[in-house]
Design goal:
The chain is of the alpha/beta class and 214 residues long. The chain has a single domain, classed as Nucleotidyltransferase, domain 5 (2-Layer Sandwich). The chain is 40% helix and 14% strand. It contains 8 helices and 5 strands; from the N terminus they run αββαβααββαααα. A 5-stranded mixed sheet has the order 3-2-1-4-5. A hairpin with an 8-residue loop joins strand 1 and strand 2. Helix 2 packs across helix 6 and helix 3 packs across helix 4. The radius of gyration is 18 Å and the shape is globular. The relative contact order is 0.21.
Length: 214
């Protein structure tokens, strides 16, 4: 193997050598967005899964993510996707909601993993052996796969939200704070799916009904 090429499967291979068979990777998408849900995914890949095209979702193009997503969904031993609304984020806080969502993804997998790898955030009080890895979505295959599933799932949700709230450009900014998105907020006020606890949105001038999943 070229020493300059990252061995994305090394963590999982090392764990399997220690006797762990079902290794779940967990990651979330949408943590820093101003609008839309937080989405997390857990994925258990088979030992012989072809890692070509698997990487941190942020470095893949949309077409590459979609292709990888379809392969992961088709071949994964198990997967789960969980999401929470902006309302819950506003009420509980982003970090607490994030960790809760990661834990929920793990516990709702249709099979119980032997080991869990997470991206950056440790999931406390988890009965399963686990390890949090800095930039896990860039260095471990199962976390990268989870990042792809979470990202593609959330992007498709934001496409549907765009059809309901076209003024904000959710189909391309995905709810993140681009200049164009912030200008739309200034011009139109926040939409029902904005996170009102976030800086720049604590205005209190939206008093309508919040919107759940599209």
């Amino acid at each position: 193997m070229d020493p300059l090429v990252l061995d994305l499967g090394r963590y999982e291979r090392g764990l399997r050598e220690q006797g762990f068979r079902l290794i779940a990777g967990v990651d979330e998408a949408g943590r820093g967005a101003l609008a839309g849900p937080l989405v997390a995914a857990a994925v258990i890949l088979p030992a012989d899964f072809d890692l070509d095209g698997i990487n941190d979702s942020k470095v893949l193009t949309a077409l590459q993510r979609d292709a990888a997503f379809e392969r992961i969904v088709r071949h994964a031993v198990a997967r789960s996707v969980c999401r929470c609304t902006p309302t819950r984020i506003d009420r509980r806080g982003l970090h607490k909601t994030n960790v809760w969502l990661l834990r929920r993804c793990i516990t709702t997998l249709p099979v119980e993993p032997d080991y869990v790898l997470t991206d950056g955030f440790p999931v406390k009080r988890l009965a399963i052996p686990n390890l949090s890895i800095k930039k896990g979505d860039a260095v471990t295959a199962s976390v990268a796969a989870a990042s792809i599933v979470a990202k593609v799932t959330r992007d498709r949700m934001m496409d549907r939200y765009h059809r309901r709230f076209p003024a904000y450009g959710f189909n391309h900014n995905r709810g993140y704070g681009t200049d164009e998105h912030r200008e739309a907020i200034r011009r139109h006020g926040p939409s029902p799916i904005h996170r009102f606890s976030f800086k720049g949105l604590r205005t209190g001038y939206y008093d309508g009904d919040r919107v759940e999943e599209p």
